[in-house]
Amino acid sequence: MSILPNPSVSELPFAFGGPPCTGVIRAVPEDFLVDEISLFDPDGEGEHQLLRIEKRNTNTEWVAGLLARHASVPRRDVSYAGQKDRNAVTRQWFSVRLAGQPEPDWSELDCSGIKILESARHGRKLRTGALKGNRFTIRVSKFDGDQTVLKKCLARVAEEGAPNYFGEQRFGRGGGNIVSAEALFRGELKRLKRQKRGIYALCGTFAAV
């Protein structure tokens, strides 16, 4: 199996004739806000603690590990519905299984860039994919271009959709995840965490020719 190199965005085909405007996104994390839309409300009882957390400049997997250490539970007892962008301000739910254990004082979770917004009990763990979607608020600075044409393009995107490319966010900086995917498919990576194996397998699937 051969793997495509990771092309830059400028080398990929554009929908609807290309962008009519230019600008800068993610100049600061607050320029990119993500709110997870949950499938359900906590039922108020059970062995799982649901925590709605706002994080800044932090990846989801690292937060999960932090929660496990704070609650003194195995990492496998902490779960989330989906990973969120690191270079952003994001809000999402985590679940921590506390079967037979006292609930920790979440206010003592002292970590820069992490804030607990809500906390409630629930009878079941939060599983991957258990969300309606994500709501994005994106601020563009140094904007330049024809706003009339841009609005027409956005209307077409809303009606017809647009290409969903897998770029640096999935392939990793410099294509590092693709290199790991190749090693995985060659059988060279034997002992991998399930989360890493899933990322590499997905990257390899989308990059394979």
Write structural notes for this entry.
It is a single chain. 26% of the residues lie in helices and 26% in strands. The protein is an alpha+beta fold and 209 residues long. The strands form two sheets. Strands 2, 3, 4, 5, 6 and 7 form a six-stranded mixed β-sheet that branches. Strands 1-8 form a two-stranded antiparallel ribbon. Strand 4 (78-80) and strand 5 (89-97) form a beta hairpin. Helix 4 (176-185) packs across helix 5. The protein is globular and about 60 Å long. The N and C termini lie close together (7 Å). The relative contact order is 0.23.
Task: Describe this structure in a few short sentences.
This protein is α+β, with helices and mostly antiparallel strands and 209 residues long.
Secondary structural class: alpha+beta
Round the mean pLDDT to the nearest integer and report it. 84
Relative helix content? 25-40%
Number of strands: 8
Order of helices and strands: EEEHEEEEEHHHH
> What distance separates the N and C termini?
7 Å
Total helices: the number is 5
Shape annotation: globular
Largest sheet: 6 strands, mixed
Strand content: 25-35%
Radius of gyration: 20 Å
List low-confidence stretches: none
List the helices and strands and how they pair.
Blueprint: E1 21-24, E2 32-38, E3 48-56, H1 60-71, E4 78-80, E5 89-97, E6 114-122, E7 131-138, E8 141-145, H2 147-160, H3 168-171, H4 176-185, H5 194-207
Helix pairs in contact: 4-5
